[in-house]
Protein: NADPH:quinone reductase
Amino acid sequence: MEWVAHAPGAPGPGEVRVRHHAVGVNFIDTYHRGGLYPVPLPSGLGSEAAGVVETVGEGVTQLRAGDRVAYAGGPLGAYAESRVMPAAPLLKLPDGIGFDTAAAMMLKGLTAQYLLRQTFVVQPGQTILLHAAAGGVGLIAAQWARALGATVIGTVGSDDKAELARAHGCAHVINYRRENVVEHVREITGGRGVPVVYDGVGKDTFFASLDCLAPRGLLVSYGNASGAVPPFALLELSNRGSLYVTRPTLVHYTATRDALEAAAAELFDAVASGAVRIEIAQRYPLADAAIAHADLQARRTTGSIVLDV
Structure:
């Protein structure tokens, strides 16, 4: 990654120019940079930011100059002081949500929304398992699941992260570096297992996640922090109790404007009500995005990462 001068120019039809105030960093950015999710090169990076509309192109009627906006998705290129982009992914920010909070929560918060409210609809009284509970998605999802009435079991890799996960909604925390996750989940659930596992880690946790499920349970594999899950035999699912596995992505849950606005409204309400508070644990200058990536991939970070513009 290089920090270079770039003039964004004027927006075309259906586009706007946005002046960023804060930019979010997500693990998917490392997939784009590293080639796991190939993109045409050269390319910008980043899918999440918040700022102010500077000017609008022809045909844009839902936004105007001066509007406070945020987004998660659309063409890559959020790692910039300003950019021209399609108007379609942009959402107007409620007055009570600042730029930093928005940049820290849009992609991770919308991910938590579809995980908990669409992929598997969490119900009061259920016990669920959430890997990487001290990460950006984890801290939001744990709080939200607790607000929905669920008991959250979270996995983490250190005592500091365990304390953070407990403070953000996890009733039980398992340190996977020195504890057996499957045994502890079975102990907590009286041997039954859980109806759903939310797994953003991937290769290192996949089969343990399956072993934590109750019969006919669902493994939601939504990330690859440890690497992509290798091919496996479908008989692994039947042998463990007629299990289900899904590999969802945010783009398919926000493919229409109505779906995007509905998911964002739930997220904004959860934050505004205090049910979910956004943890900005690390900040970097925008020009130091490469350092942020190194820290994220080395698992030296917790919560959300924001690049200051």
Q: What stands out?
A: The chain is about 30% helix and 25% strand. Residues 124-247 form a domain with the Rossmann fold fold (CATH 3.40.50.720). The first strand starts at residue 15 and ends at 25. The chain has two domains: 15-105+278-308, 124-247.
